[in-house]
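Sample entry (301 residues):
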Amino acid sequence: MALSFNRRWRLRFPITLSVALIGLNIALMVCWIVLLAMESYWSAMTIGIVLFALVLIGLVLYTIVTIKEVQLNLRQANFVDSVTHELKSPLASVRLYLETLLLRKVDESQREQFYRVMMDDVDRLDQLISQLLQIGRLDAIVTEAELEDIEMEPLLRRCAEIACRAQHRPPETVKLRVQPAFARGARLAMEMIFGNLIENAVKYGASIPEVEIDVEFISPDRVITRIADNGEGVPLDLRRKIFGLFFRGGRELERTQKGTGLGLYIVHTLVRKMKGNVTVHGRGRESGSVFEVSLPGRSAS
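Predicted structure, serialized as tokens:
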């Protein structure tokens, strides 16, 4: 509770201070104009108005920059909280199972179950470390790779299988409706883009998630991939922010889903580097979100 109050205060203080300074500047400007107008000092009044206007513009710009900096700091604090949790949880789990295996005898079926859980935790750690390493080399993933025409159907099907397995969901969770199509890009980048989006759709879906993937053309050289889930959806005011670095809605201690806020930033960056675009929309009267990825491509027919 104290931590939450402290973070809110860190954002409110610069806003309150800046608003007060802007209000004071406007009051002084009005007084300056009234006094000089009464004395008919038009030249001095003009110079004063210009100077006051410059000060006002500076205060507004300072306010904007300060608020953005505070918001970035809050996102970084959330990121540190989430990464700390993501690192400690699987390590604690692996340690617990190893201690159990060392301190007591277990039957073969229990041993196999322990090994499977530990492997899942190791995979979780590996995925987190991979994401952290990928942030520093997103440019190289596209610029140093050979661009190729990649068939969408097998790529999406493989990403869907991996996502369902990672979230312990049956393969039929994801339904594909894919027109025969090729997208042009770097294979590793494409796997990262659609792997992240499909896993998010499964993770943030309803208690029984349902994910639908559609691929179609909107022009002769653009391939559109839509990934729809049946979760709570993304609020309208967050639909641009969620692609920012470290961004996750809400506060870390209140979350029910794992994550670091890196996945959608990676998706957005890689899509842009391949001359594409990614957006998120609602599903009309249905609950959930639709992530739409537009990439250069061609029909397979």
